[in-house]
Amino acid sequence: MAKIKYVARENKKTGTHSFYGAPVFNGKLTTAELLEEALDGKSVEPSIARAVIEEYMKAVKRNVLKGFRCEVGTDFLTVYPNISVSVKDTKDEETGETVVATAKMLSAANAKSRIGCSVAIKFSQKFAQEVSWQKTDKSGATIDEEDITQGNENVENGTDNTTDNTGGDNTGGGGNDDPDDGVIS
């Protein structure tokens, strides 16, 4: 079973006594590196495969810009246009009265345009069955032999619906890009 390390981080955005687990990444693999691994011993030249992938992704981009949901890999990812905009009730500064939000107040002019991406449930379930997690401290030393996938029956029976990432940060709610900031030792 694959083992991925994770650290505990404090979620400073929500106040004190709020923590989340964050994976410790081993680095980033490029398209060229992945193609080299995928095509090792195969008759397809990596440069040809890379050219096909680049053209495929251009087609995905064109169609997402037209409003389509586009599959990237069979039963893997779906990429789609996403918008982040909301309105809520406010207080009128002069009168102190509540201004009730309505759908008419919602405007794309105040929105953030994003790319959304969802992971296929089938792929996510397979990942959950093949991975275990090892808690570490900031230096990378193992804290305990805990496996956080144990006891997660929802993943095994297919009811875990946490596989959607709609274009926001994916840091467990902390939104912290500094890998050392907030790490609990």
Would you write up a description of this structure?
The protein is an alpha+beta fold and 185 residues long. The chain has one domain (2-184): Irregular (HU Protein, Chain A), CATH 4.10.520.10. Helix content is 23%, strand content 25%. The chain is built from 4 helices and 10 strands, in the order ββααβββββαβαββ. Strand 3 (70-72) and strand 4 (77-84) form a beta hairpin. Helix 1 (31-38) crosses helix 2 (46-65). The chain is flat and about 75 Å long. The two termini are 26 Å apart.
The SSE order reads EEHHEEEEEHEHEE
CATH fold type: HU Protein, Chain A
**Whole-number tally of structural domains:** 1
CATH architecture: Irregular
SS content category: alpha+beta
Largest sheet: 4 strands, mixed
Shape, principal axes of CA atoms: flat
In CATH, what is the class? Few Secondary Structures
Provide a quick synopsis of the model.
It is built from four helices and ten strands, in the order ββααβββββαβαββ. It is of the alpha+beta class and about 180 residues long.
